[in-house]
Structure formats: structure tokens, C-alpha cells
């Protein structure tokens, strides 16, 4: 069999396989083209969102040279950022663990402060009730003295000496007002 005959017998199958491969390659190229278009569209959307976010950020805070320098000093990779976070967490823990009793001492002091605050509140309530009782006793004493004393037979000086401390402690009025009250009781005597 000659080479031509042999070529003619395998050529149709070879051409068919080549056409099938070409169709598969076209299909793959079309899929790759669609994937590329989707990626490009997604990239364009992300770029637009980034520009919008940048414009918004610039409208909220103006980037000064100092702020720009601070951003440049910040970590730029994920690894550097994670290391900075770990350092930030480790630093307070190191201070805390230098003295193991710090937390316990803090809690003890908080309990003492709370107990003292509660005691102070109770003392203030008790003081107010005692002051109310004292005021009630002052009023009762004043009424009793007034009931048992005959003002008409006392001189105005005697009434002033006896009743001025009472009347000034019952009311926060000046001496002059108390003196005028005494004059009224005495019927205008001085």
C-alpha cells in the first residue's frame, strides 16, 4: 500500500478529529472570553465602588500630610497587620501578668468602694430621718413652751431671751423678724 492510499484512508478520520478539537478549542475560547468579560465587568464595578468610596472618604476627612504619613507607617500586608494586632494584645497582657494580684486587688477595692457607698447612703437616710425627728421635737417643744407660759406677765426682754433661740432655730429668719414677733406678742411693748 502506498503512502497516498494510506493517507487517504486515515485522512478523513484525522480531519474529523482535528475539526472536533477545533470546535472544543473554540468552545473553550468562548468560555474563556465570557469569563474574561465577567471578570472585567466585576473589576470595573469594584474600581467604580473604590472611586466612590475614596470620594466619600475624602469628603468626610481631608487627608493631610501628617495623616498620609501615618497611613504610610501602618502595616501594608496582612502578615504585618496580624503581627501588629498580636503586639497590641500582648502588651496589656504583659503589664497585667507582671503582678498576678492586680485583678484580685482591683476587685477587692471595688467591693470596698461599693460597701462604703452603700453605708454612706444608709447613713444619709438615717441622718435625714433624725433631722426630721429633731424638727418635730422643736415644734412640739415650742408648742409646749407657748402653752405653759403666760406671755402677758413676762417682760419683752425675758421673752426675747427665752424664745429667740427657739424661733431662730425653727425658722431661718433674721433677729429683726424675731424681735418684731416678740413685739406683737407683747402688745407693742419694747
Automatic annotation (TrEMBL):
- Biological process according to GO: double-strand break repair via homologous recombination
Q: Where on the tree of life does the source sit, at the highest rank?
A: Eukaryota
Keyword entries, A-Z: Coiled coil
Coiled-coil segments: 99-133
Q: Give a GO molecular function annotation for the protein.
A: single-stranded DNA binding
Under the cellular component aspect of Gene Ontology, which terms does the record hold?
A: nucleus; Smc5-Smc6 complex
What is this protein's name?
Uncharacterized protein
Q: Give the species this sequence originates from.
A: Salvia splendens
